Amino acid sequence: MSARNDLERLVRPNILALAPYRSARDEFQGLAPASVFLDANENSLGSPLDEDFSRYPDPYQRPLKEALARRKGLSPEQIFMGNGSDEAIDLLLRAFCEPRLDNIVILPPTYGMYAVQAAVQDVEVRRALLHADFSPDPEAVFRVTDERSKLLFLCSPNNPTGNCLPESFLIAMLEQFPGLVVVDEAYIDFSEQPSVLSFLEKYPRLVVLQTFSKAWGLAALRVGMAYANPFIINILNKIKYPYNLNVSSTRLALQALDRADEVQAGIGLLRAERARLAWALSALPQVREVFPSEANFLLVRTTDADRIYAALCAEGIVVRNRTRELHCENCLRITVGSPADNDRLIAALQNLNDA
Ligand SMILES: Cc1ncc(COP(=O)(O)O)c(C=O)c1O
Q: Which of these, 15, 26, 155, lies nearest to 85 by C-alpha position?
């Protein structure tokens, strides 16, 4: 079967057949340069703000995709830009999963949005639990997989556990899982393990999610990426809102790409802080274990997560209580903050101990 046929069989038939909405700017693209735009019912008098926001943005964020493509050694046709990578998760489910018929496979404990978006779409979630040490169980994946398993979500580094899934496991899934393998690399910039982007050529069913929200420090802008075979990117483009990314976010993300050196320095600092925080936390009596992390957070097993969570809140420090997640009893997930944030956290925990 050709790669295209293999991908086509995975798409919901109604989506495959869908003629997407064509925005005014879609139709205009490629024609002679124009200076009078009377095609989109915008306000030609401009905006009440200093900057003119009166025109709809480029639906395909071309300059941003070109800059990202150069950075990643890909072509712009392999890139989808979303309103956060959460949008890509939602669109993948809507494009590939037939409600009440298809299923997705996840590896709990993992990022919550895969199951939430599946529930919104009325798609069954099958769970191949991680082992207690958070390593994956390939047999468990295949036990729950059948011919209606359309998406396998693999989060690496994983949220909330912080570890990467071994490359050998990712390759085994890419070789054997019958649907799309979505590798969520939201935290990859903090990790020693290389991205799987280089596998895109070999594995047409691979989708890689990345984001500007973490290492790039732009969570408020809501800009995320899906990298995949151009056929998959076209399907996502077909069903997205026409102008899913606003003009400010697109422009600011592009500007940030010019300051990659500063971002790299920030990643270095956060990794050093991660090690310092892990060391300081592990010295505290109310900490049982600090799990190794390849991300910008630490999963920490404590003596009493509910109590420590509440005590930190009372000090104005908010962490994430994960005690009710599988294998995470009494665990807090703590983002590695600025050096000053981390000092405050450590001091608060030390005081808690003295109290
Ligand atoms: C694993 C993972 N994927 C995706 C996201 C969503 O990122 P975005 O801000 O790009 O929507 C998060 C956010 O916390 C995450 O932890």
A: 155
